[in-house]
């Protein structure tokens, strides 16, 4: 008994477009769903040469799978498709045609293109972009190439030695890294950490870290980016120096002294000594000898103070001719001894440098 198979009813269940061609490459059958992919109807395509719509035909009608080709639709759009096919043979085992199916893969191509674009963004980023797994052990699964430009160590060096960040972190900042991987830190704020560059100097990085948790709220990974803020930190340090130091002498100024007094008054419990110095007749000196001479006198006085008070001391210029020295963790007898030493130093200075003779009133 012979059964006639209705190919249309069989193939209608498939999302692929099924096609048969003869040995002249003419389409002898195409499934009805061809209009979804190609925009043509069955009637329009049967009898056409397959090369009118398909970019590539497998050589010698060999069996193929997952061959990436493209089709041209009725309106001229080119669509990438995946082709699978096999030859049609007669009873004498002669190839008389070819059968194949086409499936639209343009959505996958769009995804690949999107993914490629994102990867290119990561590769071009000036910041260090990373992902690290924490379970079962710490390891990087992604690092952007910018890490070599910023820290001198390549991506490969980090992947070979996963503990490298802990080894090159500044000793004072290692605790931040430990608290990161143990989920014991505030991830909502940037985490500033210093790392030793391969050439030996330190680089400041601001780490913007996103914790990744599993369904049981266990920290399993970290994602984020680190930005080089070395220039910013150096500027901050410079501004701090400008705000806390006297421009003429390099000694601390009144603002720093007030900050230090606040710390000693509220945070530390130490005996302190205070020595006051006031240059005599500085205004008269400026009027008679000029301000440049007065400035040299002030600098000379500071140099005497710096030579005298070397440990646990804060030397501040609190006014034009006023100086205050705070000696920390001391005793009355030590302060008195430093007072006598200072008086002696001023006397010696005036003996050997009569041009810049210092007149100063001192109390403790």
TrEMBL record:
EC id: 3.1.4.52
Gene3D superfamilies membership: 3.30.70.270, PAS domain
Sequence ranges assigned to domain GGDEF in this UniProt record: 270-364
InterPro entries: Biofilm_reg_signaling (IPR052155), GGDEF_dom (IPR000160), Nucleotide_cyclase (IPR029787), PAC (IPR001610), PAS (IPR000014), PAS-assoc_C (IPR000700), PAS-like_dom_sf (IPR035965), PAS_fold_3 (IPR013655)
Keywords: Hydrolase
Any GO molecular function: cyclic-guanylate-specific phosphodiesterase activity
Domain PAS: 10-57, 114-188
Record domain PAC: where: 65-117, 189-241
Top EC class, one word: hydrolase
CDD domains named in the record: GGDEF (cd01949), PAS (cd00130)
Protein name: Cyclic di-GMP phosphodiesterase Gmr
Upper lineage: Bacteria, Bacillati, Bacillota, Clostridia, Eubacteriales
Gene symbol of the encoding locus: gmr_3
């Amino acid at each position: 008994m012979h059964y006639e198979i209705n190919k249309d009813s069989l193939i209608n269940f498939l999302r692929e477009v099924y096609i048969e061609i003869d040995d002249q490459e003419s389409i002898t059958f195409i499934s009805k769903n061809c209009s979804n992919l190609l925009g043509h109807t069955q009637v329009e395509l049967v009898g056409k040469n397959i090369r009118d719509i398909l970019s590539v035909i497998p050589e010698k009608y060999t069996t193929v799978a997952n061959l990436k080709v493209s089709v041209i639709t009725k309106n001229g759009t080119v669509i990438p498709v995946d082709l699978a096919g096999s030859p049609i043979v007669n009873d004498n085992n002669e190839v008389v045609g070819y059968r194949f199916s086409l499936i639209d893969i343009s959505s996958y191509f769009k995804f690949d293109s999107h993914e490629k674009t994102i990867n290119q963004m990561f590769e071009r980023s000036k910041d260090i972009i990373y992902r690290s797994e924490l379970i079962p052990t710490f390891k990087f699964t992604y690092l952007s190439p910018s890490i070599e430009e910023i820290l001198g160590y390549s991506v490969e060096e980090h992947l070979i030695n996963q503990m490298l960040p802990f080894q090159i972190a500044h000793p004072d900042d290692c605790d931040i890294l430990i608290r990161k991987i143990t989920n014991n830190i505030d991830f909502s704020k940037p985490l500033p950490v210093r790392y030793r560059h391969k050439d030996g100097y330190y680089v400041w990085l601001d780490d913007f870290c996103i914790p990744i948790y599993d369904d049981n709220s266990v920290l399993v990974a970290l994602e984020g980016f680190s930005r080089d803020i070395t220039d910013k930190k150096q500027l901050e340090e410079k501004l701090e120096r400008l705000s806390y130091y006297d421009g003429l002498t390099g000694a601390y100024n009144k603002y720093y002294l007030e900050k230090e007094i606040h710390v000693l008054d509220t945070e530390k419990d130490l005996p302190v000594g205070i020595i006051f110095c006031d240059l005599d007749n500085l205004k008269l000196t400026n009027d008679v000898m000029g301000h440049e001479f007065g400035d040299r006198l002030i600098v000379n006085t500071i140099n005497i103070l710096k030579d005298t008070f070397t440990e646990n001391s804060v030397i501040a210029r609190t006014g034009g001719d006023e100086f205050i020295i705070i000696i920390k963790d001391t005793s009355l007898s030590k302060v008195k001894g430093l007072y006598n030493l200072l008086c002696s130093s001023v006397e010696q200075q005036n003996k050997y440098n009569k041009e810049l003779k210092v007149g100063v009133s001192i109390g403790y």
